[in-house]
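Quick illustration, no need to memorize.
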Amino acid sequence: MTQLHYNSGFGNEFATEALKDALPQGKNSPQKVNYGLYAEQLSGAPFTAPRHQNKRSWLYRIRPSAGHDPFKPYKHKTLRSTPFNEVTTSPDQFRWDPPPVPTQTTDFIDGLHTMAGGGDSASWTGLGVHIYAANQSMTLSKRFFYNADGEMLFVPQQGRLHLRTECGEIMADPGEIAVIPRGIRFAVDFPEGGSRGYVCENYGALFTLPDLGPIGANGLANPRDFLTPVAAFEDIDDTFELIAKFSGQLWHTMIDHSPLDVVAWHGNYAPYKYDLAKFNVINTVSFDHPDPSIFTVLTSPSYPPGTANIDFVIFPPRWMVAEETFRPPYFHRNIMSEFMGLIHGVYDAKESGGFVPGGSSLHNCMSAHGPDAGTFEKASNATLKPQYMDKTLAFMFESRYIMRPTNYAMESGTLQKDYYKCWSDISKIFQGNQ
């Protein structure tokens, strides 16, 4: 495997070049860029956004991005976008088994399946939640993709992801995440063959690190652990298909060269990756079960402050230490909607089975949920001593928006129609009449 190189730091200004002196320097920027490159600015925020929120990068490339034929609609069987109104959404709890990895040749684009979503992509609010199951690299299908509707958070569950982007290459294994900002062109390859994972499509404010508040200066995800690729480019003349997601629909056109022809770039709008094992867990050492907000890796903020468009939350290996306290999550009803996935191991609220790696669940606003009957019984009688949970990694896309399931999600053979029964064996243990 080729060794990839990265820059370090979340949201930093980077300057990187694959050829010496490809980057113009200050007042010495020439009328004509070295190597015959074209200058192109990619803006991820309004021009006049406050400095700390302004996102843009200058790309110095072999050909401008504007060179392509008109786009035509591209039909996709299972990818959906706002408005998510295919089916009437009930307040029930939903859970799905993992989707099978296809046996027929399927690349990332055709292997995408939309599970749920909410908000309005045209108004920059809400999210789409997708799963992917594929086995062919886009190198072989000769395709590239970009998303004008939102940034894409990748959570691989099975198989390595190789993301070839305009800004360089990213390799992400299960247990890591990768984010591709809105508008950046890329391709997804699968070096290990059949792969599966989750994608959160963020229509709202860009993902950022959450404020730490009373936690203080240290904890959760550290900015230094986020890695951005260094410049790498493809100078390939051939016929390729470019697919775009724009205004909720897919479009495609043919191009005569690889769009990953950026020889150098500088700025703060670029893809990045993060190893979830580097998350610094904050947990209770006294009593009660803390809110899952202490496990937030990234947040897409919205108004009012503290109300997230999306929170990306993980439940990683950690110490469970508390005094005389029920350890798994309590039964709860939440104003936020929660879509969960499992990367590996066992989730501590569902130890009786049914929620397996590659599977998912959806608990919408105020839909009651919590530990299954077996987990409740075990946790209620467990010896309360420090316990290190080392065989688990679950995550949650949490949002202020109700997530409406798609036809695919509700008609898929992976839907567990008996999920509600995991609470039916919880018996009445009230002793108030004694």
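The chain has a mean pLDDT of 95.
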